[in-house]
C-alpha cells in the first residue's frame, strides 16, 4: 500500500477530506522552519563544563565513561573495559570507516567482526554520532555504518564518541542532523531510525524494582575521545 493510499484511508476513518489550503500552508511552514523548543540553561555552559555535565549525567543513569586522549587509544580502552568486567575479548564492531581504521592489531587478543549484531553477540562497539549534555544522552541515527541492532541485541554496548560531538541540548543535536542530511533533490531527509539512548536499558515495572537490561543492553560504556581542545578540563 502506498503512502497516499494509507493517508487516504486515515482520512476516511476520521471522516475528513484534504486539509484546507491555509492549514496545509501552516503545517508546511512549521515543517520547513523547525521551530526550536526551550533549551535548558544548564546546557549553556563553557565547553569543559558541558563535557563534565555530559559525563555526570551518563553516570547518574548507570552508564560509565572513560576519557582518552586520541582515537589510537580506543583498542586499549576496549580491552581494559572488557577485562574489568570479566568479559571475553570478543565483540561485534560497527562497520564504520572511522572505527575500522583504528589500530586493532595492537591488541591481538581482541576478536571482532564488523557487521550488524546478532542475538548471540554479547558485546557491541558502536560509533557515537552525538552526545547531549543536558541529559547524558547519546544520539545514534541508523545507517549502514551504524546498525541499530548494535544498540539493542548485545548485553554490553560500548560507544566510541568524540568530545567534539558532545553538544549542549537536544535541539542542537537535531540541528546538526538536519544540516548533514540536507540534499539538493529532496531538501533534506531523516534516517530510518534515530535512537536516543540514556544509560543502559532498565525497567522498574515489576514491584518497582529496578532491573537493568530489561529490553536492551545491561551495560553502557562510553569511550570519550578528547579531540576538542576547548573541551579539555581546566588545569
Automatic annotation (TrEMBL):
Top-level lineage group: Bacteria
Residue span(s) of domain LUD: 53-225
PANTHER family: LACTATE UTILIZATION PROTEIN C
UniProt-recorded name of the protein: LUD domain-containing protein
Organism: Roseomonas alba
Source species taxonomy: Bacteria, Pseudomonadati, Pseudomonadota, Alphaproteobacteria, Acetobacterales
Amino acid at each position: 500500500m502506498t503512502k497516499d493510499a494509507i493517508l487516504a484511508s486515515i482520512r476516511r476513518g476520521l471522516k475528513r477530506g484534504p486539509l484546507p489550503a491555509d492549514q496545509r500552508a501552516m503545517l508546511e511552514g512549521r515543517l520547513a522552519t523547525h521551530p526550536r523548543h526551550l533549551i535548558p540553561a544548564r546546557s549553556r555552559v563553557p565547553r569543559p563544563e558541558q563535557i563534565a555535565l555530559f559525563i555526570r549525567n551518563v553516570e547518574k543513569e548507570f552508564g560509565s565513561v572513560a576519557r582518552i586522549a586520541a582515537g589510537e587509544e580506543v583498542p586499549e580502552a576496549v580491552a581494559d573495559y572488557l577485562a574489568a568486567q570479566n568479559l571475553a575479548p570478543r565483540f561485534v564492531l560497527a562497520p564504520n570507516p572511522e572505527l575500522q581504521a583504528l589500530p586493532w592489531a595492537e591488541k591481538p587478543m581482541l576478536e571482532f567482526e564488523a557487521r550488524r549484531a546478532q542475538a548471540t553477540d554479547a558485546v557491541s562497539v558502536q560509533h557515537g554520532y552525538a552526545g547531549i549534555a543536558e541529559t547524558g544522552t547519546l544520539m545514534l541515527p541508523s545507517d549502514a555504518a551504524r546498525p541499530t541492532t548494535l544498540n539493542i541485541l548485545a548485553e554490553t554496548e560500548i560507544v566510541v564518541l568524540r568530545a567534539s560531538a558532545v553538544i549542549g541540548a537536544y535541539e542542537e543535536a537535531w540541528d546538526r542532523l538536519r544540516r548533514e542530511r540536507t540534499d539538493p533533490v529532496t531538501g533534506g531527509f531523516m534516517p530510518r531510525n534515530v535512537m536516543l539512548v540514556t544509560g543502559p536499558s532498565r525497567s522498574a515495572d515489576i514491584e518497582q524494582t529496578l532491573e537493568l537490561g530489561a529490553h536492551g543492553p545491561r551495560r553502557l560504556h562510553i569511550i570519550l575521545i578528547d579531540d576538542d581542545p576547548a573541551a579539555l578540563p581546566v588545569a
